[in-house]
Amino acid sequence: MSDIHGHHHEHHHGDGNGSYMGHEHHHEHHNEHHHHEHHHHHEEEGGVKGTIVKIAVAAVLLVAARLVEEFTSLSQWQLLLVYLVPYFIVGWETLHEAAEGLARGEALDEHFLMSIATLGALTIGFLPGAEPQLAEAVFVMLFYQVGELFEGIAEGKSRRSIAHLTALRPDIAHLVQEGKVEDVRPEKVVVGDIIQVRPGERIPLDGTVTEGDSSLDTAALTGESLPRGIHPGEEVFSGCINLSGVLHIKVSKPFGASTVMKILDLVEHAAAGKSQSERFITRFARIYTPAVVVAALLLVLIPVFLGESLAVWGYRALLFLVVSCPCALVISVPLAFFGGIGGASRKGILVKGGNWLEVLARTGTVVFDKTGTLTQGVFEVTAVHPEKIDGQELLHLAAHVERYSAHPIAVSLKNAYPGEQDGCLVSQVEDLAGQGVRAQVNGQTVCVGNTRLMDSIGAAWLPCEKSGTIVHVAIDGLYAGHIVISDRIKDDAAQAIEGLRKAGIQHTVMLTGDNEQTARSVAETLGLNEFHAGLLPADKVHLLEKLVRKEKGRRAVAFVGDGINDAPVLARADLGIAMGGLGQDAAIEAADVVLMDDRPSKIVTAIRLARRTLRIARENTVFAIGVKLAVLVLALLGLASMAMAVFADVGVTVLAVLNSMRCLRK
Ligand code: ADP
Ligand code: MG
Questions:
Q1: Is 400 left (phi over 0), alpha (psi -120 to 50) or beta?
Q2: 18, pLDDT greater than 90
Q3: How many CB atoms lie within 10 A of CB 283?
């Protein structure tokens, strides 16, 4: 239980706003966090088994001691010695932690509460007129350990489900040099090297296929196990599994910057942002425990001062201490959030902290980007309408201008005209976000983009009767025609909007830089409430701010994007959700939630999961406080027994932990 505390002390950052600042902050704490995680992991491995053995041995010895008490006539002192054996076996660590905490002058914690309560129970029998409570003292300590055990198991489970992705880390790469293949560590491979990947192996580094045909299982990155065919010239991402043929891959990124390492880094720090409820619980525990100790003292001192029996009120104060232990809350609430993050990651949803689960749960408006988010971002050329030049030449120029752009339109045009090495000179490439690209091709200034770009350079563009995204081309300011391309709506986009509506989120908005006609057709097909077309990235930010103001801070505004031309909006929204499964680094960085498989319907899953997590955390809080208050009242009236006190403490903790575990499941 001290570990939960430790977490809180060390990771009190991330203020719950989706700014870049917040994220930088996380990074500063990287090392520290890392360290802690590892430390914890080791503890957990051996810890669970050790605790079980300890509890079992102590339980047997406790029964034995009880038999000795029953059938022999040992004195109170001798019995104490007999009971101290199981007591120390099961309680040594707790006593030690309490003493250490006290020596360091830290705030009193639940170890301290448990220690004084059980030590009190061990000694109360020596007071004149008091019933001995030896077996009860050992029992309390024993059950306290059972609670810890449950916590360890539950936390281990969540941790493992988050860390199942860590199995992705590759440890060798087959480096091809002068026809020979050598196995090296992936860190040693440099950009431009050729590596070989055999069937059944995980691709260790990002790159482009130079030789071989195969299919890939991308499930590890996207949760989607449909094999994807792969051929020379295509880009592949580390972490995917090569299923059939031998591939030769020209490495495009160093290991540290590879997709797999990016994702691992994110996963490792996923739980860093603490939720409001978690932080509240920590603060609460810090004030609460000393208050309980003082109250227990008063509970003994006042009646005794008034001439009441020390034995009676001492016992009640002990019950009070046991009941008041805040374990159930301190453990189960963070565990619920942790489980929620773990459960989400099992479904390919990476939530960067418990705080984002809270924001997800109170989302009222979901704003979507169009290209690459609601649509696949894979355009097909449906028509080429040249003006005064040849159609092939128009495609050729457009593909050259787009050579360095990562925009889905650019990628599609390059695929439509893949003649890269034809000796054309391309220079001074300028990306005009939300409008297009300008570059020098063989000494001519070529602009490729939408009507806004054509207007800004004064080219007399012609409208097109065909529906789709129109890519206009101008050479030296003179209009040269347009290419009509069309995108397809993602299979599950309609399902996503429908699911949101069913989840009570009525307000769905689409923002796009594309033309009105295309935007309208997508919005109508999907049944979105609202859409805005022809936007520049800055317009998207303004519109989003307007939507945020409209919600008046009551419900959150989530923005879902692919990170191309919309990273600022992702960062500005109450909650940034990135379609970041493959490739878009900036989006993965800026977002608070990452959908690994780029499926918009996962937003509904995420929202439902977040709501469930919050509900479970709330249930635990109400249940724990309710039972404790009831038993406290009984204790004050002298109607409670040690068994009831133990239930109110450990029983409630175990039930709350079990309840929290539900967050992990479907
Ligand atoms: P969306 O909001 O749909 O994601 P963007 O903001 O990325 O779209 O782009 C808006 C519009 O700008 C596109 O529909 C296209 O007309 C034009 N555009 C942007 N980038 C390019 C490019 N690389 N090549 C051609 N046109 C582009
Ligand atoms: Mg976009």
A1: alpha
A2: no
A3: 11
The Å distance, Cα 563 to ligand 2 centre, comes to 7
Query: What does the DSSP 8-state code read for residue 554?
Result: T
Within the chain, how many helices (H) and strands (E) appear?
23, 22
Contacting residues for 301 by C-beta, under 8 A, at least 6 apart: none
For ligand 1, atom 9, the nearest C-alpha belongs to 434
Atom of ligand 1 nearest to the CA of 536: 6
- Does residue 369 have an active-site annotation? yes
DSSP codes of every residue in 432-452: ETTTEEEEEETTEEEEEE-HH
Report yes or no on whether pTM surpasses 0.85. Answer: no
- Per the CB < 8 A criterion, the answer to whether 248 and 211 are in contact is yes
- Torsions phi, psi of 240, nearest 5? -80, 155
Judge whether 658 and 336 are in contact, CB under 8 Å. Answer: no
Ligand 1 atom nearest 537 alpha carbon: 6
User: Per residue in 162-180, is it b (16+ CB within 10 Å) or e — as a string?
Assistant: bbebeebebeebbbbeeee
Q: Is 245 helix (H, G, I), strand (E, B) or coil?
A: coil
Q: Are 590 and 606 in contact (CB under 8 A)?
A: no
- Ligand 1 test: best mutation among 369, 411, 514, most atoms within 8 Å of CB? 514
Q: What is the CA(376)–ligand 2 centre distance, in A?
A: 11
With a Cβ cut-off of 6 Å, ligand 1 is lined by 369-371, 402, 405, 407, 409-410, 434-437, 448-450, 469, 471, 512-514, 564-565
Q: How many residues does the chain have?
A: 666
> Phi-psi region for residue 127, left (φ > 0), alpha (ψ -120 to 50) or beta?
beta
pLDDT of 484: 92
pLDDT in tens, 289-314: 888 889 899 988 998 899 888 888 98
The model's pLDDT over 444-487, given as tens digits with 9 standing for 90+, comes to 899 999 999 999 999 889 988 888 889 999 999 889 999 999 88
Catalytic residue among 206, 217, 369, 649: 369
